[in-house]
């Protein structure tokens, strides 16, 4: 890896979320992938020898060591079919953190683009507001994640709704519906975790109070099995 300036990340896994998912993680002999890894904070609770981090922005990816780091596109993961026993990730939420214009005033903006300091990669969903583009991107990403997850593997997803123009946008429910109804993952558990939220920007007082953690399983029904 070439020398690259290290940059902070505006939406790392919170310690509260990591504590909530920690009981579900075997420490070793299980290959775990985070396809939207950011700076790789998952390595704080997962044995780095068995942790694989995929992140498209190099400035964030390089912070994932000593885990196995790939600077790559989630839509084209460089792994064989059914490689991983578990996927754990937190995608962008499609909220105002996706704002990617560079402000001319001096107000503080905690967005992916502002923190990184330059335009994001074309396939970085951190610049996608909730809408058709966001949904199509994540449909393709989840299909690719499904491909590399072993049969009977587990998928831990951290996601959150947000408020837009006074209304709650049900981002979490959309992800869950696609994963269960379209890909056939089975929901095993749903955890709601109160977390400190981003308090910068316009309408900073209007925030959903909790994030969701979905524990899902890739169950495969064999042909002829009616049970």
Describe the structure.
With 227 residues, the protein is of the alpha/beta class. It has a single domain (15-217), classed as Vaccinia Virus protein VP39 (Rossmann fold, 3-Layer(aba) Sandwich), CATH 3.40.50. Helix content is 20%, strand content 23%. It contains 5 helices and 9 strands, in the order αββαββααβββαββ. It has helices at 15-21, 58-61, 112-116, 132-148, 171-182; strands spanning 32-34, 51-55, 68-71, 84-89, 149-159, 162-164, 167-169, 186-194, 210-217. The protein has a 7-stranded mixed β-sheet with strand order 3-2-1-4-5-9-8, sandwiched between helices. Strands 6-7 form a two-stranded antiparallel sheet. A hairpin with a 2-residue loop joins strand 6 and strand 7 (167-169). The protein is globular and about 45 Å long. The N and C termini lie far apart (50 Å).
The main sheet comes to: 7 strands, mixed
Mean pLDDT: 84
- Count of distinct strands: 9
Order of helices and strands: HEEHEEHHEEEHEE
Under the CATH scheme, the architecture is 3-Layer(aba) Sandwich
The gross shape turns out to be: globular
Assign a percent range to the helix content.
Answer: 10-25%
Helix-strand category: alpha/beta
Order of strands in the sheet with most strands: 3-2-1-4-5-9-8
Assigned CATH class: Alpha Beta
Over all CA atoms, what is the radius of gyration? 17 Å
Count of spatially separate domains: 1
How widely separated are the two ends? 50 Å
Quote the CATH topology: Rossmann fold
Beta-strand portion reads 15-25%
**What would you give as the CATH superfamily?**
Vaccinia Virus protein VP39
The DSSP helix count reads 5
Poorly predicted runs of 5 or more residues: 198-205
């Amino acid at each position: 890896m070439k020398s690259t300036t290290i940059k902070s990340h505006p939406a790392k896994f919170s310690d509260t979320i990591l504590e909530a998912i920690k009981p579900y993680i075997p420490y070793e002999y299980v290959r775990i992938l985070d396809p939207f890894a950011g700076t790789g904070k998952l390595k704080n609770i997962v044995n780095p020898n068995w942790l694989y981090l995929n992140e498209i922005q190099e400035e964030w990816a390089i912070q994932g060591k000593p885990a196995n780091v790939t600077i790559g596109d989630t839509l084209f993961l460089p792994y064989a079919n059914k490689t991983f026993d578990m996927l754990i990730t937190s995608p962008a939420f499609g909220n105002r953190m996706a704002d990617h214009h560079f402000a001319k005033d001096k107000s503080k903006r905690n967005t992916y683009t502002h923190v990184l300091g330059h335009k994001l990669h074309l396939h970085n969903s951190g610049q996608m507001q909730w809408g058709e583009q966001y949904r199509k991107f994540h449909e393709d990403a989840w299909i690719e994640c499904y491909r590399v997850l072993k049969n009977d593997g587990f998928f831990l997803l951290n996601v959150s709704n947000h408020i837009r123009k006074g209304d709650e946008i049900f981002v979490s429910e959309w992800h869950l519906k696609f994963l269960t109804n379209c890909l056939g993952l089975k929901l095993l558990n749903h955890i709601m975790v109160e977390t400190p939220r981003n308090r910068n920007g316009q309408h900073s007082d209007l925030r959903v109070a909790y994030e969701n953690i979905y524990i899902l399983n890739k169950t495969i029904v064999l042909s002829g099995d009616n049970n």
